[in-house]
TrEMBL record:
This is (6-4)DNA photolyase. Belongs to the DNA photolyase class-1 family. Keywords: FAD, Flavoprotein, Lyase. Its cofactor is FAD. The record marks W336, W393, W416 as: Electron transfer via tryptophanyl radical. GO terms for molecular function: deoxyribodipyrimidine photo-lyase activity; DNA binding; FAD binding. The lineage of its organism: Eukaryota, Fungi, Fungi incertae sedis, Chytridiomycota, Chytridiomycota incertae sedis.
Length: 530
DNA sequence: GTAATGGTTGCTAAC
DNA sequence: GGTTAGCAACCATTA
């Protein structure tokens, strides 16, 4: 009897999920079964690069999928272990029971996933299992974009925009939402109850404790809730604000705004696939089309934000060693600090102990809530790298990867490359000031710093972003002594940023000398054949 | 080959 | 308060 196995990885949703829809459609024959599977890979579970909030958000997303499946009498099978081993066992069990197995999943372009999925295709081929994959995580398939661009990966946004608007086919309508999926029979449940084999109930979405993760204190648990329901609710709520949607300009939004934030906070849902980028796109188009006041355009518009995601996905796909400096052909080679003190400085930055309230408030919000505004990311990334500490963007990216609930390999890497002036952006002499920048966003930035750094709650506004300049009498009055209740600044920004600009210039000049001769015209940055 | 142009989001002082 | 030049001057693309 036919069994269509749907492998959930991203795309933790029932709306616009082509792979799941096809798997469901394949179950129309009598006695056929849909088996929804998720594999908790030790590559992700055991590594420390996923923080508590990211785990919580993920498990909530998984629970929401299981809840939706359960409403139709189905159930998510959550297997824990190395995917190839698990699927091998699963397939053997099904085949031994006389089933004809087929596998459905959404394609994933990140390096680890590409290797994993290639191995999976081999495994399936060896067992005569038909595999069906679908591109639905992004609006455009990165390899298609590169192909229509003559094998060249666009590394300038405007070039990318030209390619997708002029050379790519129109974005297809979303796949209809699955309101009903085939129920899972008791026989199938009994067959796949691995409790004895693995020591856990695989038909139960695990808790934090189950996967060996501690739940932290209340103040460190993100207020952002995961799941498809929450994603669609947020999308709907945001799209109701038609003026805001049509007038959206990213650089004009306020990084210090909270309750509500000045942007959509849909990124964590897009990352998990709790929200389909295509659904977002079509809902946005509806608002644009109905608008009488016109609407903003990429790169600053809301559509422009969706396209940035596409841009970085494509760059990440087409660039070797994208997440590293060494061996990355588009990355400026910069001798970032690696001395002992840089470890101490990195830690101060990561834990919000720099002595610059704006920087520290951002890093504290990041740790507590798992999300910070894009321009806040700019501020702290510039501070860590070319602005102040001269520490590698790779080390900063790892901290973000752990703490951000929307941590997405392509986007996180791309933005760090940008901010450190290693790729995409090269005006390294434009440095964000840890004091001057937040002043532009008063009074929200004042409230923001007071919220995330309670020690500065009563500190005079005049000195809030540079508290070391505050007269000691006023420090006493505010109940916050700098150097005791809140750290002294870890560096002199004005002096050190000037020195760093000089170092960047040297690194850029040396890069020019060291760079190999340019490839013939039209053959630049060709994509390696798969 | 060279010059001009534009690049989502800097800061400061001067008008 | 809003706009502009200077800062010292980047890159990728296009004319």
């Amino acid at each position: 009897m036919p069994v269509a196995v749907h492998w959930f990885r991203k795309a933790l949703r029932l709306h616009d999920n082509p792979a799941l829809a096809k798997a469901v459609a394949a179950c129309s024959a009598p006695n056929s079964s849909l088996l929804p599977v998720y594999t908790l890979d030790p590559h992700f579970v055991k590594n420390s690069h996923i923080g508590t909030n990211r785990w919580l958000f993920f498990l909530e997303s998984l629970q929401d999928v299981d809840r939706s499946l359960s409403e139709s009498g189905s159930k998510l099978l959550v297997l824990r272990g190395e995917p190839m081993t698990l699927f091998s066992t699963l397939f053997d069990t099904l085949i031994a029971n006389g089933e004809t197995v087929s596998l459905y999943f959404e394609a994933d372009t990140s390096p680890y996933a590409r290797n994993r999925d290639a191995a999976m295709l081999e495994l399936c081929a060896s067992k005569n299992i038909a595999v069906h994959t679908f591109n639905s995580h992004t609006l455009f398939n990165p390899s298609d974009v590169i192909k229509v661009n003559g094998g060249i990966t666009p590394i300038v946004y405007q070039s990318f925009l030209k390619v997708i608007t002029e050379k790519m086919p129109a974005i297809q309508p979303a796949t209809p939402t699955l309101t009903q999926v085939p129920p899972l029979s008791d026989e199938m449940k009994a067959l796949l109850t691995y409790t004895e084999t693995f020591g856990f109930d695989a038909f139960q979405v695990p808790s934090m404790e189950d996967i060996g993760k501690a739940v932290p204190g209340e103040n460190l648990v993100s207020t952002h809730k995961g799941g498809e329901r929450e994603a669609l609710k947020r999308l709907e709520e945001y799209m109701k604000q038609k003026d805001l949607v049509c007038k959206f300009q990213k650089p004009e939004t306020n990084p210090a705004a909270f309750q509500p934030a000045s942007t959509t906070i849909l990124s964590p849902y897009l990352k998990m696939g709790s929200l389909s980028a295509r659904t977002f796109y079509h809902e946005l188009m509806k608002v644009y089309r109905a608008s009488k006041i016109g609407y903003t355009k990429p790169p600053v518009s809301l559509l422009g934000q969706l396209y940035w995601r596409e841009f970085y996905y494509t760059a990440g796909y087409g660039t070797p060693n994208f997440d590293k400096m060494l061996g990355n052909p588009i990355c400026k080679q910069i001798p970032w600090r690696t001395d002992e003190q840089s470890n101490v400085d990195l830690e101060k930055w990561a834990t919000g102990q720099t002595g610059f309230p704006w920087i520290d408030a951002i890093m504290i919000q990041l740790k507590q809530e798992g999300w910070i505004h894009h321009l806040a990311r700019h501020s702290v990334a510039c501070f860590l790298t070319r602005g102040d500490l001269y520490i590698s963007w790779e080390r900063g990216a790892k901290v973000f990867e752990k703490l951000l609930i929307d941590a997405d390999w392509s986007l996180n890497t791309g933005n760090w490359l940008w901010l450190s002036a290693s790729a995409f952006f090269h005006q390294y002499f434009r440095v964000y000031g840890p004091v001057s920048f937040p002043k532009k966003y008063a009074p929200e930035s004042v409230k923001y710093v007071r919220k995330y750094i309670p020690a500065l709650k009563n500190f005079p506004e005049k000195y809030l972003f540079e508290p070391w300049k505050c007269p000691i009498a006023d420090q006493k009055k505010a109940g916050c002594i700098i150097g005791k209740d809140y750290p002294k600044p870890m560096c002199d920004h004005d002096a050190v940023s000037k020195v760093n600009i000089g170092k960047m210039k040297v690194a850029y000049d040396e890069g020019k000398v060291a760079s190999p001769p340019k490839a013939p015209k039209g053959k630049k940055r060709p994509l390696d054949e798969d």
